[in-house]
Amino acid sequence: MPTVRVDGVNLYYEESGQGLPLVFVHEFAGDYRSWHLQMRFFSRRYRAIAFNARGYPPSDVPDDVKAYSQERAADDIRGVLDGLKIQKAHVCGLSMGGYATLAVGLKYPQRALLLTLAGTGSGSERGVLGEFREHSRAIAAEYDKVGSDGVAKSYGMGPSRIPFDVKDPRGYAEFYEQFASHSAKGAANTMRGYQAGRSPVYVFEAELKTLALPTLIICGDEDDACIEPSIYLKKHIATSGLAIFPKSGHTVNIEEPALFNQTLGVFLAQVDAGRWGARDKRSVRAEKK
Question: Under a CB-based contact definition with an 8 Å cutoff, are residues 95 and 28 in contact?
Fold first, then answer.
């Protein structure tokens, strides 16, 4: 079983293909399997890599909640690169994985060729941070009581998941089965240590304004919690582009795999060709005084 050891924790990974490294970082309700449609598509041109975060078997499940955080998630991505002897990689994350990807861009920009932030920013909306953290702790407590299968029945049917179920019941059923199979302890620890403790994107405004890595932001137009933060990220990262997928919820990469792969593929090609630069300042509307 292929693993890399990061800070005493074994992280499971899979890889396929040759070329520039492209690392996929999964969301809370997903795991490395969530990226199988991207792994199949992009391994034709890239060295595609997907790994399981700590707390998601077959990766290790640390007992200590302090072993889980946004900063550690960024360190784990760096550790995967170190373990696979990769100096720089394209990094693509969804939701929780998008937060970790952004953290890599801010903390280890020298290790990334570009960033893709999909479905990133839930809990960041102004005025909802306290509620989001309280809700995350409540979900963790629910894992303690009813386990992963029990939580999947509620969390897996949240508002931002409904568009997936409506448009693709078979795909949603596969997502649900994988989500319900997760380690309850790992999920609870992730909720308490990472999700409930992460910072909203707004606190990074100064750093975002200096971020020079090519960045693609993707959001579903029915992923209500991520629309405002996605627009915020677009506004403050000069080297970013924003794609909004119509009639789409949170899991954009498996809800709309063809559109996601096409959008990401064009982005990768432009960056690889040196054709993705910062926004031309002449295109920025002057602020009214």
Answer: yes
| Rounded distance between C-alpha atoms, residue 37 and residue 55, angstroms | 23
8 Å CB contact between 217 and 240: yes
Q: What distance in Å separates the CA atoms of residue 166 and residue 173, rounded to the nearest whole number?
A: 11
Give me the DSSP letters along the chain.
Answer: --EEEETTEEEEEEEE--SSEEEEE--TT--GGGGHHHHHHHTTTSEEEEEPPTTSTTS---S-GGG--HHHHHHHHHHHHHHTT-S-EEEEEETHHHHHHHHHHHH-GGGEEEEEEES--TT-STT-HHHHHHHHHHHHHHHHHHHHHHHHHHHTTSGGGHHHHHH-HHHHHHHHHHHHTS-HHHHHHHIIIIITTPPPGGGGHHHHHH--S-EEEEEETT-HHHHHHHHHHHHH-TTEEEEEETT--S-HHHHSHHHHHHHHHHHHHHHHTT---PPPGGGSPPPP-
pTM of the model: 0.97
Cα–Cα nearest to 26, from 182, 133, 150, 258: 182
Distance CA(93)–CA(218), nearest Å, equals: 10
Q: Is the pLDDT of residue 71 over 90?
A: yes
Question: Other CB atoms closer than 10 Å to residue 281's CB: what's the count?
Answer: 7
Over residues 89-118, mean pLDDT: 98
pLDDT of residue 178: 97
What distance in Å separates the CA atoms of residue 46 and residue 67, rounded to the nearest whole number?
31
